[in-house]
Design a protein that fits this description.
The complex is a heterodimer of chains A (236) and B (153).
Chain A lengths: L2 E6 L28 E4 L2 E5 L1 H9 L7 E4 L5 H9 L3 E4 L2 H9 L12 H11 L7 E7 L7 H14 E12 L7 E10 L2 E10 L7 H7 L5 E6 L4 E7 L1
Parallel strand pairs in A: 1-10, 4-5, 4-6, 6-7
Antiparallel strand pairs in A: 2-3, 3-9, 7-11, 8-9, 10-11
Chain B lengths: L19 E3 L4 E7 L4 E3 L2 E15 L4 E13 L2 E3 L2 E9 L4 E3 L2 E8 L4 E8 L34
Parallel strand pairs in B: 1-3, 2-4, 3-4, 4-5, 5-6, 5-7, 6-8, 7-9, 8-10, 9-10
The chains are: A alpha/beta (236), B mainly beta (153).
Chain lengths: 236, 153
């Protein structure tokens, strides 16, 4: 049975953001900076409770293989290998654009069986239970429903029992397009976001839809933040 | 300290003096063994071994091979598994698709890499998951994975 928790994070007041009355109030003058996300020259620094939970889940383990779909970066490679793990990197956004980009509509092309076959065979084609953790970031929201289902199914297959997977979903249902980010790990609970363009997501997910998407997994944990990214930790 | 070989001022050839080199128009299919530093700016298909030396894949180089060297610098394109006892550098605009085993790795922003990275310390090499499809010029051993069950309430 799928179990899930909702963890409400008091990340401080972001200017202009809609408040949530159930969020814990911070003691004035005490604690972390008032914004969970700081910006500097196009690079956004973001505190990530999901990332913190992910690394906490593998803290006492060694020699895991970690799947990182953000694309290879010195930051992510160094951080994960310095923990004593192996890393498998793939720039899934780039792969998606190569597989389903023009001519034609990006999401309509994801219904082409031949394109889907090529994408799946070149992307998550690993033996079962290969990975002790996966960082899929926000890539899943750029998959049309059918491809999304197949990809989540494959992620389930390649993850070891008990492995955690971190996924982000943009929560602003009114946004016609969302930024596509490069995700770089700064430390165990901080990521650096660099925009690499925008795209309309295939669909928006509420909590119920995410529960249904990850129904095969053992557990699901949401982190609700004040900004537009919903963080989800899924346990295989 | 310059990591690229120095250019000879005496010739128009871009390959440096004192370093073995395959020029842009050279294509090799087969096995390459070298006992000196090597720069590849042409096309190579097969295997490349320079146990105690440095291999540089130049900006025009296209290597579809398994590579073993002390140090590997990639400015062009490599498709194959790569093993360096010391260091691997993947420069901006370079492309490497394959699995890496090395003691150190440097990857610049703008470089493209797809594959696994196994940091080896000493002679201990860790096993890693392998794809179902075979890699060029190498045969993959079956992966061994230990399952770890964890239940969260």
């Amino acid at each position: 049975m799928l179990k899930h928790w909702k963890e409400l994070l008091g990340a401080g007041q972001a200017p202009g953001s809609a408040g949530n009355s159930s969020l814990a109030q911070k003691t004035p003058g005490v604690g972390p900076p008032p914004q969970s996300r700081q910006r500097s020259e196009g690079v956004q620094k973001r505190q990530s409770p999901g990332l913190e939970q992910f690394f906490s889940s593998i803290r006492d383990q060694e020699n895991l293989s970690i799947l990182d779909l953000a694309g290879a970066s010195q930051a992510n490679i160094s951080f994960i290998t310095n923990l004593g793990h192996r890393i498998y990197s793939d720039d899934i956004i780039r792969t998606l654009e190569a597989a389903f980009g023009g001519p034609g509509d990006f999401y309509e092309n994801q219904a082409d069986p031949e394109r889907v076959r090529k994408f799946m065979s070149g992307t998550l084609d690993f033996p079962e239970q290969s990975f002790g953790g996966a960082l899929v970031w926000d890539t899943l929201q750029f998959l049309a429903p059918s491809l999304l289902h197949d990809t989540v199914e494959q992620l389930y297959n390649v993850l070891q029992p008990g492995a955690s997977m971190l996924a982000f979903f943009h929560a602003d249902e009114k946004a016609r397009s969302v930024p596509i980010y490069n995700y770089r790990i700064a430390d165990a609970k901080t990521i650096l976001l660099t925009s690499r363009g925008t795209r309309a997501p295939a669909q928006f997910f509420n909590n119920r839809a995410l529960e249904k998407l990850f129904s095969r997994f053992q557990s699901l944990k949401f982190f609700l933040t004040r900004d537009a990214l919903r963080e989800v930790i899924v346990k295989r | 300290m310059a990591s690229m070989p120095q250019r000879s001022p005496e010739t128009h050839n871009e390959m440096p003096r004192g370093v073995a080199a395959l020029g842009k128009s050279v294509m090799v299919k087969g096995q390459i063994f070298s006992r000196e530093d090597l720069t590849i700016d042409g096309e190579v298909e097969g295997t490349v071994e320079l146990q105690e030396h440095r291999l540089t894949v130049g900006p025009n180089g296209k290597v579809q091979a398994g590579i073993k060297a002390r140090e590997i610098v990639v400015l062009g394109a490599v498709h194959g598994n790569v093993e360096a006892t010391d260091k691997i550098e993947i420069r901006k605009d370079a492309k490497l698709v394959g699995d890496i085993k090395t003691a150190r790795i440097v990857i610049e922003d703008g470089a493209y890499f797809k594959g696994s990275i196994d940091i080896t310390k000493g002679d201990v090499a860790k096993s890693q998951p392998t794809r179902q499809q075979p890699r060029p010029a190498q045969e993959q051993p079956p992966a061994t994975v230990a399952a770890a069950a964890e239940v969260k309430r």
